[in-house]
Design goal:
Helix content: 25-40%
Oligomer: single chain
Number of strands: 16
Shape: globular
Number of domains: 2
Order of helices and strands: EEEHEEEEEHHHEHEHEHEHEEHHEHE
CATH topology of the largest domain: Quinone Oxidoreductase, Chain A, domain 1
Largest sheet: 7 strands, mixed
Length: 361
């Protein structure tokens, strides 16, 4: 099958950093789906794995951890899906990626594709949705709001504003999202508003990224190039209970310590580049935690199936209009040249939303 892979780990401006290759189609394991890939998305993890290093792959290494497609075949122990089902998922970093015509993935981390989204729009969602969902509701244990039933006792869903208003607000909880216009921030804003009814403050430094965050539901925007305490004072905000940190972990340690409430919780999705002094959080007894959406599939944890469940929940929310896709830009058909362009755009560091490519039928 056709795929895009690498033999050497090179700067993205090198034509050999990503190349068109032919590789054998995978054989599905007992719990696997063999998916005919229709669209893929590109994430910072792709560029991190591809970044220059002294290593050479004898066989092409295929990257990519966001896909939407159609189930072609199923393993003998599969129970959630059948051939012909449309699916979306992020996959596992310990297995070959999805930048290929066909891809094998464990059904326990796959969700049904939202019916109202194109394959590209759906491919933009899994990795960032899982990351944001787990960071907010698993790692920081932010309480979910409950749906308010109508006069008949039934919960109704309609347009996004109607759905959002159907959720009761939590008891004054607030969330700061650092990096609001990125892939994870873009879905975290929506999940925090729709599922937890929170006051959401997002960071953005450019007018276009600030506008994007507001459209997704952020209540306030602060500039991450300015001291957070001063920015909070400017918007009339007090300290926040929760912080979701999606950029370089060590960059805003003191800023975060200045604006988080005593006994608050902070979750970061990015590892540090060196030792980090977290003592500024000690006096406030702040809980510090990590989120990596690959943890469950990497270690095949007993609750691995939670990713299947949350992707299905997200699909329902996308279909109802409560959530919207964060897809913003397509780079055309999947080939080495176009994928290098997408990697370069991610590495530039100012992307809004998610970038996708289509896979030829």
């Amino acid at each position: 099958m056709k795929a895009v892979g690498l033999h050497k780990y090179l700067p993205i401006d090198n034509p050999e950093s990503l190349v068109d290759v032919d590789v054998p189609a995978p054989e599905p394991a007992p719990r696997d789906l063999l998916v005919k890939v229709k669209a893929v998305s590109v994430n910072p993890v792709d560029t991190k794995v591809r970044s220059p290093k002294d290593k050479v792959e004898a066989a092409p290494r295929v990257l990519g951890w966001d896909a939407a497609g159609i189930v072609e075949r199923v393993g003998g122990a599969v129970s959630f899906f059948k051939p012909g089902d449309e699916v979306y998922y992020a996959g596992s970093i310990t297995r070959p990626g999805c930048n290929s015509e066909y891809h094998a993935v464990d059904e326990r981390i796959v969700g049904r594709k939202p019916r109202n989204l194109s394959f590209e729009e759906a491919a933009a969602m899994p990795l960032t949705t899982i990351t944001a969902w787990e960071a907010l509701f698993d790692r920081m244990a932010i309480p979910l709001a409950t749906l308010a039933p109508d006069d008949t006792g039934e919960v109704s869903v309609g347009s996004a504003p109607e759905v959002a208003s159907a959720f009761r607000r939590t008891s004054g909880h607030s969330l700061l999202i650092i990096g609001g216009a990125g892939g994870v921030g873009s879905i975290a804003i929506q999940l925090a508003k729709v599922l937890a009814g929170m006051r959401v403050i997002a960071t953005a430094s450019r007018p276009e990224s600030a506008d994007w965050c507001r459209k997704l539901g952020a209540d306030d925007i602060i500039n991450h190039h300015e001291p957070f305490a001063a920015e909070f004072k400017r918007i009339g905000a007090g300290e926040v209970v929760f912080i979701n940190y999606t950029t370089t972990t060590e960059k805003h340690i003191q800023n975060m310590a200045d604006v988080i409430k005593p006994q608050g919780k902070l979750c970061t999705i990015v590892e540090t580049k060196g030792p980090v002094n977290i003592n500024p959080f000690q006096r406030k007894s702040v809980a510090f935690c990590w989120e990596l959406m690959f943890t469950r599939p990497m270690f095949e944890t007993p609750d691995m199936e939670a990713q299947h469940d949350l992707l299905n929940e997200a699909a329902s929310l996308l279909e109802s209009g409560a959530l919207r896709t964060t897809h913003t830009r397509s780079f055309g058909p999947l080939n080495a040249e176009n994928l290098r362009k997408a990697h370069a755009a991610i590495e530039q560091g100012d992307s809004i939303g998610k970038l996708t490519l289509t896979v030829a039928s």
